[in-house]
Amino acid sequence: MAGNSFGKLFNLTTYGESHGPALGGVIDGCPPGIDLDVEAVQNELDRRRPGQSAIVTQRKEPDTVKFHSGIFEGKTTGTPIGFVIENTNQKSNDYSHIKDSYRPSHADYTYDQKYGLRDYRGGGRSSARETACRVVAGAIAKQVLKGIEIKAYVSSVGTMALDKPYTELDLTQIESNIVRCPDQGVAAQMESYIKEVRSKGDTVGGVVSCVIKNVPVGLGEPVFDKLHAELGKAMLSINAVKGFEYGSGFHGSTMYGSEHNDAFNTDGTTKTNYSGGIQGGISNGMDIYFSVAFKPVATLIQKYETIDKSGNRVEMQGKGRHDPCVVPRAVPIVEAMAALVLADFYLINKMY
Amino acid sequence: MAGNSFGKLFNLTTYGESHGPALGGVIDGCPPGIDLDVEAVQNELDRRRPGQSAIVTQRKEPDTVKFHSGIFEGKTTGTPIGFVIENTNQKSNDYSHIKDSYRPSHADYTYDQKYGLRDYRGGGRSSARETACRVVAGAIAKQVLKGIEIKAYVSSVGTMALDKPYTELDLTQIESNIVRCPDQGVAAQMESYIKEVRSKGDTVGGVVSCVIKNVPVGLGEPVFDKLHAELGKAMLSINAVKGFEYGSGFHGSTMYGSEHNDAFNTDGTTKTNYSGGIQGGISNGMDIYFSVAFKPVATLIQKYETIDKSGNRVEMQGKGRHDPCVVPRAVPIVEAMAALVLADFYLINKMY
Amino acid sequence: MAGNSFGKLFNLTTYGESHGPALGGVIDGCPPGIDLDVEAVQNELDRRRPGQSAIVTQRKEPDTVKFHSGIFEGKTTGTPIGFVIENTNQKSNDYSHIKDSYRPSHADYTYDQKYGLRDYRGGGRSSARETACRVVAGAIAKQVLKGIEIKAYVSSVGTMALDKPYTELDLTQIESNIVRCPDQGVAAQMESYIKEVRSKGDTVGGVVSCVIKNVPVGLGEPVFDKLHAELGKAMLSINAVKGFEYGSGFHGSTMYGSEHNDAFNTDGTTKTNYSGGIQGGISNGMDIYFSVAFKPVATLIQKYETIDKSGNRVEMQGKGRHDPCVVPRAVPIVEAMAALVLADFYLINKMY
Amino acid sequence: MAGNSFGKLFNLTTYGESHGPALGGVIDGCPPGIDLDVEAVQNELDRRRPGQSAIVTQRKEPDTVKFHSGIFEGKTTGTPIGFVIENTNQKSNDYSHIKDSYRPSHADYTYDQKYGLRDYRGGGRSSARETACRVVAGAIAKQVLKGIEIKAYVSSVGTMALDKPYTELDLTQIESNIVRCPDQGVAAQMESYIKEVRSKGDTVGGVVSCVIKNVPVGLGEPVFDKLHAELGKAMLSINAVKGFEYGSGFHGSTMYGSEHNDAFNTDGTTKTNYSGGIQGGISNGMDIYFSVAFKPVATLIQKYETIDKSGNRVEMQGKGRHDPCVVPRAVPIVEAMAALVLADFYLINKMY
Q1: Residues C53-111 pLDDT 10s
Q2: How large a percentage of chain C has pLDDT more than 90?
Q3: What pairing do the DSSP bridges indicate for beta strands D81-86 and D149-157?
Q4: Could you say which of D106, D258, D279 has the minimum Cβ distance to residue C109?
Q5: Which of C24, C66, C79 sits opposite B125 (nearest CB)?
Q6: D212 to each of C245, D231, D276, how far by Cα in Å?
Q7: What pLDDT is stored for residue B93 in this prediction?
Q8: What are the backbone dihedrals phi and psi of residue B243, each rounded to the nearest 5 degrees, phi first?
Q9: Cβ contacts (< 8 Å) between C129 and chain B: which residues?
Q10: Is residue C351 within 8 angstroms of chain B, CB to CB?
Q11: Mutate to test the interface with A, among B193, B236, B267 (most CBs of A within 10 A)
Q12: CA atoms of A9 and B145, how far apart (whole Å)
């Protein structure tokens, strides 16, 4: 209930503050007998890792995952998989200046109001560092979902956007540049742009898009737990997300039914795919695709005025090692959350 | 698990097919001692009712709710509230033509594939008729949330959109026209447009926006169950929804941090509200606002080709009584789902 | 959370007070494609029905179940099954005398304290009438569990107890007498005894035992959701239950390990079955057997002193139509709850 | 769903095998602002620790708990509390002899059948070592439940039983002997008896009783989640438990209603307490008391015949360091599970 668990049958519970001794989690419901590729899990973590490139935060964290249970002789056993990621690079002194002040558009104020206190070091539980645990679990979920391909990529940075649908992009190129944009030309522009924004101590938002191929027909539950509703919740639960759309999305609201309906081929596939691979909340076997909007990071390397706990005006100076734009590092997080949703529905669907 | 329940502490479970004997539901977790205004519940149902105006489906259903439990001497008792809405106007013969065929962009195909069979009459469980139960529960949730004001309205129909933020609209005018758009001039244009679309046997999408005022600080849980994540799931679970954004939304992804950060006033309110009343997944006391994109209704009053169960091409003729545009009737549904989310978080927040 | 739902994948939510318009419930998660024998469901309800014999309450309630959804052309559809049982024989005037008083060992006091008010007519939600909905759902669960045989019977009334293990009883004789005790001689004695107790306006407790045969190996989850733990919860949730034991039970605590261990046969069955068909919380394919202790009904047809809401002493006179001993009517309720537990674990086990 | 979580609002998820690198867990929903006495948590663990006395297993495990999150400057923060207990004394070689064989009345066979494989070292996940995590969480739950006193004790070992109700015992004496029986004379006899049983390589069962004082009125939910039903489930989920009874228990089934009803005092307390502090599933403020039956430990230090995976007969020799009787070490586990149930209902009850 307190918000730190995700999924019903494939269930992840996470814990950890950005500057405590460790983050960790428990995956309950992972099917037994899977040959777990632990290196593949670490690789996904590395895609999310701070310090991985010139356009992300330069904080150094190795983010090494250690497994405590649920794996025996290389296979999952069906029992819960406990894991830990130690925090090795906490510099808690960095954060003493925010102990009594509320940074704008962070969770400082709301956490203090809700809980009556907060671990103020680096955002504590509200830090996006928490998403490392999601990536671990998502990497395992991917291994449950053999044959299903989940590919996310950066489709816009600020106003700089890919102008093509995913079907015209070469998704094998996503990891070939540090922006994780499959169009190399646009990626280069985005990279320059992010560097420019950072040089001003500013930040900028962006959009991550995701395509999921080879989803079997039948995943998703009717009414409240529609497949796209859970995907939407999953994405909106990622730090800094402001919007989610799938298939025709917001643009679909401007269309006529006569344009938007996806006519059937005789094999049950459809000629168009405005539905985004989901009809009535249930996968229809076509590609699932969606986009996720991220706001600009709230931490600026600038001076700004704000208030302290007592409501006094105070001047603060943003410092530390922050991302000028989160979307390159958000790509594996989006994939991880998509994998968690699908693994859960895959298991639930076995009951029918 | 099977998708027909919503909410943790304030929990709604619904049942019912569009052409079975009745729809109904159970609200478990409604606090005791609330003077329940049953007429106000029926009024909300009437806002969703078919046949209410010239621009919605002309099907006649009184949609009268009957309560079976949980209310005694005018007050809620804390025990589950069971309710039933009888289906009085089923014309099952209308639907025999779709028994063996799959209508494009409906759930016919996916339900058949998932369950191996389906109640083909009028969409069965996948019919938007199911949302009547949400409106009943939402109307009760509103009464739990004394002082909180939830107002939804139509902000676009097709490409015809309100060009003002909600703060410049007179939200008291929403119910003064049948489109439920607070700007009377735009509403009149939308009305004509919907009629024109219907006259062609076509349909069109639209957007419903929603503003929630007077939310106490502290609602929403960290990490996975962020307030906006649950709102997003709630909205995406409504039939025909393709997208959700809150606060600065997709537009926010094009902004700089220096523009987007909401500076504090000394009382903890903020000068701007790009955050949409939620920071770190927790309400901060500012207005919550969001938008929900609806695709065009899939049922057209036109001839079209599709396939039957055996994969043969068949020609069908759309008929019956359908909405040319769902957004006017979706307004109370959006409000209901918002109320369910808030009532749930309101109760959860009492544990702290 | 509020306690009116049971089961995870095969989920029942019930509502209804003993003297409101109706009881009802929703079964969510029933697999599709089951040829539902509605008459068999009604038969189970008839086994629980008031007025069925000379030793149970003489209240007349037909207890007819009506289904609202989830069944189409005789088959379950996989969508939620809504059902209603109308209360036809409420005599609310009967209960005005308890409006302001607390009957001893009833839930009057605790409900009033917890909720601040209560539907005082006939116990309201705390009435055992609620179990009718469990029997409906259990009867459907039994049809999901093809091949599994669940047989409950009365093993003691007061101090009058069967002195044989279930393996020496002829369980086909359970329904051959109104006590539902498989030993006809003992049953006759129990019947006389119950009549004698009733003639004094008194009541007496008893024990229901239950045997489940043909359970596949593997049902139940490790650690917290052990099969016997859920069975125990299920039984203890039935009105008037004070204890639960399975396999060797309380007697097992007096035994040595060298006596108690169940040695294996080469086919994985065991020579003895002190384990009661469950090892490590998971079914091992042997018979599951357990016993459930019921206290004597609290309503006596006698004068007694108690207190009113203000703490004043008042004299009351028990009246109405009550069971002198609940165990004969509890037999189908025990079976129903067992079926719900097994159906749930049967579906959960499909995820592996 | 997979059985490794307990509780709704105060929720514990555990992981860990007896011979993996570590056990651990996450407590989600612990209220913020509690001054956490970490030493008190360790003390509870020490009460459960192997090697603590002459009558328990002589395995040496320090069982030191380390906290990873959710505590800041000595207080709980409302965010999840992650913790780890390292396994320091695994001797995996000890267990190679059971790799391919099924020990009688253990979970070897059922785990293998359910999951298709198992971590065979020391019982893996089915080992009672898992209960260490419950004790950690229970010790924190106790600190949430200020003022509520939970005291468990050994009430029988084999056929050697305390012959007095708890009201005639001096519960302050429980920890004064290694059996944890509050009657010193009986305790001494039990101690000798356990030593005698051990000297034969045998084991014996026993009963743990528990008394909870100062419970506020109103805890527990109606119908399925009655307070005693959750207590029963909690206790039955502990390894080796075969039965649970509360209040008058099984004996209550032999009583008349005229004896069993608990007459009210004018302050709402009752003259007798056969109800065991719970009426209609809700605490009434009187003492809650219950008993839990434990079977004899299945591991004997004797030769025995069993089968291997292929169904061949094999001879085995029990060895290792095992408890001759689990009840002395089960006392803190029973208390921990009781605390978890109460903390959960305490938080749930805040919603009313």
Answers
A1: 989 988 888 899 999 999 999 999 999 999 999 998 766 566 777 788 999 999 999 99
A2: 90
A3: unpaired
A4: D279
A5: C79
A6: 22, 12, 10
A7: 65
A8: -165, 160
A9: none
A10: no
A11: B236
A12: 32
Residue C230: inside a domain: yes
ipTM of the predicted structure? Answer: 0.97
Q: How far apart are CA D58 and CA D52, in angstroms?
A: 8
Q: Of the candidates C125, C110, C142, which has an alpha carbon nearest to the alpha carbon of residue C4?
A: C125
Picking from D85, D72, D83, the residue whose alpha carbon sits closest to that of residue D36 is: D72
| CATH at residue A87 | 3.60.150.10
Q: Which of C297, C63, C130 is nearest to C197 (CA)?
A: C297
State how many domains chain B has.
Answer: 1
Q: Which 3 state secondary structure label does DSSP give D95?
A: helix
Q: Which residue of B has its CA nearest to C119?
A: B72
pLDDT per residue as tens digits for the range B166-215: 999 999 999 999 999 999 999 999 999 999 999 999 999 999 999 999 99
User: What integer pLDDT is reported at residue C94 of this predicted model?
Assistant: 64
Range of the domain at B142: 5-349
Distance CA D137, CA D156 (A): 27
| Distance spanning both ends of chain D, measured CA to CA | 27
pLDDT-based confidence at residue B267 (cuts at 50, 70, 90): very high
Cα–Cα distance for residue pair C206/C193, rounded to 1 Å: 12
Phi and psi at C196, nearest 5°, equal -65, -45
Q: Which residue of A has its CA nearest to C351?
A: A347
The DSSP result for D30-82, as a single string, is PPTT-B--HHHHHHHHHHH-TTSSTTS--------EEE-SSEETTEE-SS-EE
**b/e map B283-298, b = 16+ CB within 10 Å:** bbbbbbbbbbbbbbbb
Contacts of D352 in chain B (CB under 8 A): 31-32, 78
Condensed to tens digits (0 to 9), the pLDDT of residues C167-225 reads 999 999 999 999 999 999 999 999 999 999 999 999 999 999 999 999 999 999 999 99
Is C84 within the bounds of a domain?
yes
Contact yes or no for D82 and A15 at CB 8 A: yes
Mean per-residue pLDDT over chain A, rounded: 95
Q: Give the relative orientation of helices A38-48 and A327-349 as an angle to the nearest 10 degrees.
A: 140
Inter-chain contact A77–D23, Cβ cutoff 8 Å?
no
Q: Strand, coil or helix: what is A160?
A: strand
**Crossing angle of helices D131-144/D327-349, nearest 10°?**
50
